[in-house]
Design brief:
- The chain is of the alpha/beta class.
- The protein folds into two domains: 208 residues, Glycogen Phosphorylase B (Rossmann fold, 3-Layer(aba) Sandwich); 158 residues, 3-Layer(aba) Sandwich (Rossmann fold), CATH 3.40.50.
- 35% of the residues lie in helices and 17% in strands.
- It has 14 helices and 15 strands.
- The strands form three sheets. The protein has a seven-stranded parallel β-sheet with strand order 3-2-1-6-7-8-9, with helices on both faces. The chain has a six-stranded parallel β-sheet with strand order 12-11-10-13-14-15, with helices on both faces. It has a two-stranded antiparallel sheet with strand order 4-5.
- α1 crosses α14, α4 packs across α5 and α9 crosses α13.
Length: 407
Amino acid sequence: MLTAMVGIPSSPEPDSESPSGPRESRPPARIVLHAINGVGAGHLARQTALARHLRLRQPGLDPVILGSGPAVDDVCGEVPLIELPSMGRAGRYHGEPAHPDMLAAITAMTHAALAGLRPRVVVHDTLVWPTVERAASLVGARQAICLRPRRDLAELLARPDSPLRRMDFVFVPDDPTRNPQFSQQLEAAGIPAVWTGPVFRTAVAGAAETREKLGVSPEARLVVVMSGGGRGNGAEAREHFTCSLDALSRLAEPGLAVLLVLGPMFRSRVEIPTGFPHPLTVLRGSRELPDVLNAADLVICRGGYGSLHEATAGGARVLAVPAERNFDDQRARIERFATDTACELVESTIPEDLAVQIRRALKAGPVPSGATTLRHEALDQVGERLVHLSRQDGDVPQGLAEQFTYR
């Protein structure tokens, strides 16, 4: 909540050039990375990865994450953050619409958070929450967006109120060669974008250290089953866990160890097959998930952006089950990954069929090296652009203050 702002000093105004001498050293410029986190944790994980890179390699910036939902503290780790109530979760309470005053209160808290932090730049991730955009404009912040490829880009650009045209800087955490249509649509719309390559969290600990912490022997073949953060609190994730465990229970291979990562948003239950033949460990959180995936021999996951990049960054083989999403084509993403990584599309989740695919993947052995890596030079370019933006004042549109309350 907003009390978390205590102890985070406001970012001073940037120094100006003195006519009588050289510019004084500037203090780090505060930037806010906003992550919508009402359904999944993908936006939050990507903003966390970006914040870690900037904290390590860009001393001119002071990144703070602004997020909401149950995954914020679990995912962000050491990155400074402000946790707000989730507008999406407050919108429904036991099936009843939330009182307008509740939504107005969350809106006011968002404005108060940005007014207290006084960021020079606000970075959105793929989706722009109008409340945050308005609040950022009111404090004179420049605005940028980390725009993950989404299949509804044409419809978004066709909207007269499309926020993409109001952004001061657009960068895409992917490759244009993998997303030619998306690249062409941005170019046709006259929106210049920097393509950075993938942005995702990476392992900190070595595989041997992580296995020791998990109680998994070096000789065991570790299978990790996860559902990512997307819709991890509903029947979809429960079905994914059930099918995966059922398939694994049909394998008689010795030396398997299974790790089930529920994710911070999962609030349902998982049924373990009777007589499950392998050692099974269940983890709730995902703060150290990149370390876990780096220690795995096989990962069974969904086709989310973060899940696939983090899973394929180590030496594990990956079996990915696409999930239906409004703005994200997971099947197409998995098929692209299958062309240059050790990732396979799961065509059938029937336990008997999935067991055959798991057995084949285990027999294939580990991959020589991770195919997905961070491109630090490209992200350094993003950091330099953000520093440049932080030295500019944003324009406060007339009449914006009248939109302060949520109605």
